[in-house]
């Protein structure tokens, strides 16, 4: 019975709905939360949802990884597309770099002002 | 009975509503289209064996066909570590924020540290033969250093001169490999080393070389990143 | 001769920084001059399309046509002037690395013909901008940098959505292939791609309604950083926005929408500048206003108006560089950037520089800004867009109010302190001022170049 779940359209549907729910959680969190850490964490969740979506949509049941090993001895069309994987590898590293830079800014800002809430960041504006 | 009552502001509700509407529209859009079957990826799989001699198609895409993106990514890591280092000044005088006195951890780390580093180098060097590569191996090596920070507290410190030197030289070597390709074969990142047979360690032309430089650079940078975030406790 | 040297040489220089600690400012000047000469050697040549590592659409392509060459020459000229200005200070490792990375990333943005590669350079430029904002290391700098990063990550997310939808529907990342196949995919996917690209690039190109964050960032950064942002970074993002929009053959309704929000952006920015009391913010609002005019002009799909926009881009970059560097001199003397410092300084040279800058931004003869606005308005009249002409003229009047108010306050009778301008800044600022006047009196060479740039920008899908 479980084999009926092992079909490509069902998998694609689950991945689409799941990653879009995560994207919603991430975007809502980034727009409404007030704690700086929570905002960046929500943005990280939103980016992660996009990664899952992109890789998941390129998978089809019955395909194998694009690596030649002892069992899979030739490159054939039965392999998963390697370009999205390369793109997501790059994008994950970019997301890590940006997130760590953001965290270091938050740490430095907190040391100077003792404030972690976005709506109390009032150093910039007219007349300051 | 615990009485939990949380105030949810109007703004949160409005934003959630708008984003949910957007999501439902996106879902209906995405569920109704099919992924295109022939893309540049399928063509690359077809020509991979002859053009690059690397057994791992993802590696050949990352380093060869889209090598410039990898260069950009390495640059981004370099820039963000540099940016973090600019802000956290005086980190040499600060203490480790962990304060574990765990004897089990201390004894285990002495054995595990070289093994994890060896495994990391294995993953880096075999990037064109099995899943893995420069980024993956670099992060493994950085996790070994994180283990040392957790175990040894303030007794373990990195030599930043060597770190800086490794970063600078491996980054410059990566670009030099590309420039050599430009000068010798008239195209950036072109293959100027022999391709070898598929599945051998010394195959794949310039790909293992690129991944070794990338692996060294990533490991140096993420180790520096870990140390920046661990040594932030002020000396009292 | 490869076009990749524009990107690779600054990257290599910034990686090798630890080896040349004391000579960095000289290397900076030398590097920019060499690249400028190299860029000028491509003038008049045929468009070049260069692939890395494999000769087909499977790998990344770089395209050098007259549009990208113009922008590369413009950025290299600004960077050369900027690095010459810094010869008077000590060699600093951080400014060397950051300016070179900025140069490499904007060159890559302009040259690249592959959409994921554009995303990578977009991220490099963004991270450089975040670090540049935080260089002041005080509360304002970090506050501005954190806000910038939140908004910038939003832009990245939407850009990623666009790239993923493009790849899932078309299967290629090469801009020429995408341009060919774009009209044959699902209508809803087309709408999603255009919308995500608008939000993603529009946040960085600083157009209404996505530019509410810009003025605070200008207030948080130092004046030299603001010069780089205003002259180089915003122009590169605007170029990418319109380059991709024209390559995807967007329909005229979208271009009309861009013109309208350009006009709204111009209006709101100039009205806000009237009531601002901080000079950094006034200049930032002025930049946003000019970007609004650029959007009106660049979205008109006609060679005459777009060539006026290109002329305006060149003039505006030089003018803002001059204005922000002069403001930096004033700030170092008075330690504040409030509007009142204009009443306090006594230097005929600086008053002349500010006057030339303001009058050129307003579009008065005999300065270069006049030719730019005239070309745009003449072209719009040819398209019979009288509403837009009226909007630009009316809002320019508002601009005139606060610029003349500022100039008038320099003649106030308060006790003044005299400001000594050193020789090197004096020479550089004079060169920029003379250039503005020269392009106002002899605009024909630059106008011809702008026409060819406009032709290749609008008809960009042919290369």
Q: Main sheet of chain C, how many strands, which sense, barrel? A: 2 strands, antiparallel
Spatial arrangement of strands, main beta sheet of chain C: 1-2
Structural class of chain A: mainly alpha
Residue share in helix of chain A: 55-70%
Strand content of chain A: under 5%
Low-confidence parts of chain C lasting 5 or more residues at pLDDT below 50? none
**Strand elements of chain C, count:** 4
Mean pLDDT of chain A: 86
CATH topology tier name of chain A:
Helix Hairpins
- The gyration radius over C-alpha positions of chain C equals 21 Å
Helix-strand string of chain A: HHH
Number of strands of chain A: 0
Describe what you observe in this structure.
- The complex is a heterotrimer of chains A (128), B (236) and C (463).
- In chain A, 62% of the residues lie in helices and 0% in strands.
- By secondary structure, chain A is mainly alpha-helical.
- Chain A has one domain (2-114): Orthogonal Bundle (Helix Hairpins).
- Chain B has one domain (10-230).
- With 236 residues, chain B is mainly alpha-helical.
- In chain B, 66% of the residues lie in helices and 0% in strands.
- In chain C, the strands form two sheets. Chain C has a two-stranded antiparallel sheet with strand order 1-2.
- Chains B and C meet through helix 2, helix 4 and helix 7 of B and helix 1, helix 4, helix 5, helix 6 and helix 8 of C.
Task: Please outline the helices and strands.
The complex is a heterotrimer of chains A (128), B (236) and C (463).
Chain A: H1 8-32, H2 36-57, H3 82-113
Helix pairs in contact in A: 1-2, 2-3
Chain B: H1 10-30, H2 40-51, H3 57-65, H4 67-87, H5 103-125, H6 134-152, H7 160-185, H8 207-230
Helix pairs in contact in B: 3-4, 4-7, 4-8, 5-6, 6-8, 7-8
Chain C: H1 5-15, H2 24-40, E1 48-51, E2 61-64, H3 66-85, H4 93-111, H5 115-133, H6 139-170, H7 175-181, H8 187-205, H9 214-220, H10 223-247, H11 252-274, H12 279-298, H13 303-334, H14 341-344, E3 345-346, H15 348-362, H16 368-382, H17 386-409, E4 417-418, H18 423-441, H19 444-458
Parallel strand pairs in C: 3-4
Antiparallel strand pairs in C: 1-2
Helix pairs in contact in C: 1-4, 2-3, 3-4, 3-10, 3-19, 4-5, 4-10, 5-6, 5-10, 6-8, 6-9, 8-10, 9-12, 10-12, 10-13, 11-12, 11-17, 12-13, 13-15, 13-16, 13-18, 13-19, 15-17, 15-18, 16-18
């Amino acid at each position: 019975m479980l084999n009926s779940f092992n079909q490509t359209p069902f998998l694609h549907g689950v991945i689409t709905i799941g990653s879009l729910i995560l994207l919603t959680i991430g975007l809502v969190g980034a727009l409404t939360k007030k704690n700086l850490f929570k905002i960046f964490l929500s943005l990280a969740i939103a980016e992660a949802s996009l990664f899952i979506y992109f890789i998941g949509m390129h998978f089809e049941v019955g395909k194998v990884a694009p690596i030649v090993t002892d069992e899979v001895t030739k490159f054939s069309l039965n392999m998963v597309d390697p370009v999205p994987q390369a793109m997501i590898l790059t994008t994950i590293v970019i997301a890590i770099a940006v997130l760590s830079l953001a965290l270091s800014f938050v740490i430095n800002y907190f040391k100077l002002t003792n404030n972690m809430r976005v709506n109390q960041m009032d150093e910039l504006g007219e007349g300051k | 009975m615990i009485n939990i009552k949380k105030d949810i502001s109007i703004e949160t509700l409005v934003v959630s509503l708008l984003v949910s509407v957007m999501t439902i529209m996106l879902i209906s859009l995405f569920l109704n289209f099919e992924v295109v079957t022939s893309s540049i990826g399928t063509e690359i799989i077809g020509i991979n064996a002859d053009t690059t001699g690397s057994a791992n198609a993802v590696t050949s895409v990352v380093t060869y066909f889209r090598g410039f993106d990898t260069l950009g990514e390495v640059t981004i890591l370099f820039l963000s570590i540099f940016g973090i280092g600019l802000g956290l000044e005086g980190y040499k005088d600060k203490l480790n924020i962990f304060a574990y006195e765990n004897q089990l951890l201390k004894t285990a780390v002495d054995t595990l540290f070289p093994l994890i580093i060896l495994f990391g180098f294995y993953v880096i060097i075999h990037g064109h033969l099995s899943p893995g590569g420069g980024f993956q191996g670099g992060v493994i090596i950085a996790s070994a250093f994180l283990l040392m920070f957790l175990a040894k507290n303030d007794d373990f410190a990195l030599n930043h001169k060597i770190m800086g030197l490794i970063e600078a030289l491996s980054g410059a070597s990566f670009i030099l490999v590309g420039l050599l390709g430009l000068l010798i074969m008239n195209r950036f990142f072109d293959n100027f080393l022999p391709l070898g047979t598929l599945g051998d360690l010394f195959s794949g032309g310039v790909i293992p070389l690129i991944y070794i430089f990338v692996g060294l650079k990533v490991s140096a940078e993420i180790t520096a990143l870990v140390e920046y975030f661990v040594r932030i406790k002020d000396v009292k | 001769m490869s076009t990749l040297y524009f990107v690779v040489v600054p990257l290599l220089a910034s990686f090798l920084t630890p080896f040349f600690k004391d000579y960095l400012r000289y290397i900076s000047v030398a590097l920019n001059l060499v690249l400028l000469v190299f860029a000028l050697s491509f003038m008049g040549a045929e468009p070049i399309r260069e692939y890395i590592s494999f000769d087909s659409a499977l790998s990344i392509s770089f395209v050098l046509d007259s549009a990208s060459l113009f922008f590369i020459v413009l950025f290299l000229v600004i960077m050369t002037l900027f690095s010459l200005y810094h010869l008077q200070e000590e060699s600093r490792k951080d400014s060397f690395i950051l300016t070179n990375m900025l140069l490499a990333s904007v060159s890559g943005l302009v040259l690249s013909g592959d959409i994921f590669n554009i995303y990578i350079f977009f991220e490099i430029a963004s991270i450089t901008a975040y670090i540049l904002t935080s260089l002041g290391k005080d509360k304002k700098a970090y506050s501005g940098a954190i806000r910038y990063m939140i908004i910038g990550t939003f832009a990245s997310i939407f850009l990623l959505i666009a790239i993923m939808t493009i790849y899932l529907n078309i299967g290629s990342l090469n801009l020429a292939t995408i341009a060919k196949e774009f009209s044959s995919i699902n209508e809803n996917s087309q709408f999603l791609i255009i919308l995500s690209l608008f939000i993603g690039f529009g946040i960085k190109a600083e157009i209404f309604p996505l530019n509410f964050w810009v003025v605070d960032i200008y207030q948080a950064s130092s004046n030299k950083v603001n010069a780089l942002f205003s002259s180089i970074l915003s122009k590169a993002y605007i170029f990418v926005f319109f380059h991709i929009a024209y390559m995807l053959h967007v329909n005229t309704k979208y271009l009309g929408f861009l013109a309208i929000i350009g006009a709204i952006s111009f209006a709101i920015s100039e009205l806000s500048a009237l009531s601002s009391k901080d000079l950094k913010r006034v200049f930032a609002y002025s930049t946003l206003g000019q970007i609004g005019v650029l959007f009106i002009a660049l979205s008109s799909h006609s060679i005459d108006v777009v060539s006026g926009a290109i002329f305006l881009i060149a003039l505006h970059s030089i003018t803002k560089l001059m204005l922000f560097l002069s403001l930096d001199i004033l700030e170092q003397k008075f330690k504040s950037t409030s509007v009142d410092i204009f009443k306090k300084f006594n230097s005929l040279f600086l008053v002349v520089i500010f006057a030339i800058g303001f009058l050129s931004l307003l579009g008065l003869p005999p300065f270069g800004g006049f030719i730019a606005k005239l070309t745009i308005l003449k072209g719009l009249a040819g398209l019979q867009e009288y509403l837009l002409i009226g909007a630009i003229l009316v809002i320019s009047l508002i601009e005139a109010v606060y610029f003349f108010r500022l100039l008038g306050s320099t003649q106030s009778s308060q006790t003044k302190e005299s400001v000594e301008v050193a020789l090197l800044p004096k020479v550089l600022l004079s060169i920029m001022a003379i250039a503005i006047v020269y392009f106002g009196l002899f605009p024909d060479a630059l106008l011809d170049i702008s026409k060819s740039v406009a032709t290749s920008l609008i008809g960009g899908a042919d290369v």
